[in-house]
Amino acid sequence: MFDSGSTLDPSDWDSLRVQSHRMLDDMLDYMSQIRQRPVWQPAPDETSRVFEAPLPSSPTSLESTHQSFMQNILPYAIGNSHPGFMGWVHGGGSVVGMLAEMLASGLNSNLGGRDQIPIQVEQQVVRWMQNLFGFPESSSGLFVTGSSMANLIGLLVARTSAIGTEVRSQGLIRSDERLVAYTSVDAHSCLERAMEIGGMGGHQLRKIPVNDRHEMNLVALQTAIEMDQAAGNTPFCIVGTAGTVNVGAIDDLHGIAAIAARERLWFHVDGACGALGMMSPKIGAKMLGIQSADSIALDFHKWGQVPYDAGFILVRDAKRHQATFASPAEYLRRETRGMAAGSPWPCDFGPDLSRSFKALKVWFTMQVFGTDRIANMMERTCELAEYLSKRVAESPELELLAPVRLNIVCFRFRCDDSDDRVDSNQVNSDIVVAIQESGLAAPSATKIDGKLAIRAAIFNHRTSQLDIDNLIDTAIRFGRSITQGSQISCKL
Ligand SMILES: *Cc1c(COP(=O)(O)O)cnc(C)c1O
């Protein structure tokens, strides 16, 4: 099919067409029959060995390369498209997103800049997000890989706003300011990394304790700010979280906004998990105050079900955003007409120059489903979390480890900790691994107040009550056999 000709196009488009449809059909089969598969299975050694082959100098046919994909790659993905997947915070993807991704790669657009409708599609999504969060028209937005990048951009804009754009050329070393930022102990680790990468220093991120609902303690926040001021440090930013990765808690964003306004600090929201919940009035009501943020990081690839990757940063003041990243280069000259028109360009708002057309899969997803349908799906995942926590409460062998605010439930199998032979953390860690290896469901593990938790993050639109029942039943079954197998007595 590709055996002659000097370009990389096929010599025979007709047979390519047949093969293309076969590949599409295989993916549609995969998605429509995913429930019949194990959530996850480890790959055998001989499969791993396939990927040790060196860079090929001669061709293999598209058919057999696709066969290798079907045989060696597809069965051994992590399983986040599967309804039984509740590990970590992963989206389920959708057929619509997949098809849109194909169209985007067919166009092969580069969204760094220039005069093209794909950029207007991205700008339309930016306006949708402005409306969703009550941000002004003078705000800016940008697609990025994920919230790790979006949070980094938010903190960099905050930094530049606090101490001026000279920091770009001079570096922090020339500044007299010792910048400090604040977030809660439950915040995502990428915030500390953002402080490291931005040169502010990871230790300059103060991790404020949380209350029993796992929300930032605002009295402790105020005290920490005052202590830093007294010590001659320069507070510059508070990061609130809308949906913590551990338990799905939502900080008091309204309260944080008030403190940030009073102290003249940048208010950034890490909304990777929860911010898109604003599409539902019911969920949005839990996030009041998010509208006052100076910047918001969010992920379409999690609760939004858009295929990876699709992160997004929204910044209230486009000028400050642009002043943090834009730089002149002759080969990136702007014009008022022709292909180099349309300045400012997306590359003026982040570190990337070449950028894929991520906006298209989001545009398709919103267009085809509409926000009402997406909001319903999000509400249903929260209801499933409620149902799961109810089933935990009703099971004497299980206990809930954190209150359920959104769609994440942390629980564990009860063990008799007064018995020296019992290590309840080990038992629960073994239960999580056993469930994952069974392929029946996929929770992940985390620690809540030192206790190992079986964590179910219900982000997948395909997850149903059946999957929740299955998780609970499997956890109890494995819990019993692990504790009985090792002669461990369990408190009942
Ligand atoms: C997932 C997540 C991140 C990191 O986002 P990526 O898209 O994985 O880079 C940050 N914060 C929270 C709360 C998250 O859930």
> Based on DSSP secondary structure assignment, what is the total number of beta strands?
11
Largest sheet: 7 strands, mixed
- Structural class designation: alpha/beta
Radius of gyration: 25 Å
Bound molecules: pyridoxal-5'-phosphate
Number of helical runs?
15
The strand order across the widest sheet is: 1-7-6-5-4-2-3
Report the portion of residues in β strands: 5-15%
Percent helix range: 40-55%
Ranges with pLDDT <50 over ≥5 residues?
487-492
Q: Outline, from the CA principal axes? A: globular
Task: Please tell me the overall pLDDT.
Answer: 95
- Encode the helix/strand succession as letters: HHHHHEHHEHEHEHEHEEHHEEHEEH
The end-to-end distance, rounded to whole angstroms, is: 66 Å
Describe this structure in words.
It is a single chain. The protein is an alpha/beta fold. It has helices at 13-32, 45-50, 62-73, 95-107, 117-133, 147-163, 166-170, 190-197, 218-230, 253-263, 281-284, 318-325, 358-394, 424-438, 465-485, and strands spanning 140-144, 179-184, 205-208, 234-241, 266-271, 295-299, 311-315, 398-400, 408-413, 444-448, 451-457. Mean pLDDT is 95; it is low at 487-492. The structure holds pyridoxal-5'-phosphate.
Brief characterization of the structure:
This protein is α/β, with parallel strands linked by helices. The protein has 15 helices and eleven strands.
What would the keywords be for this entry?
492 residues; alpha/beta; seven-stranded mixed sheet; four-stranded antiparallel sheet; 11 strands; 42% helix; globular; binds pyridoxal-5'-phosphate
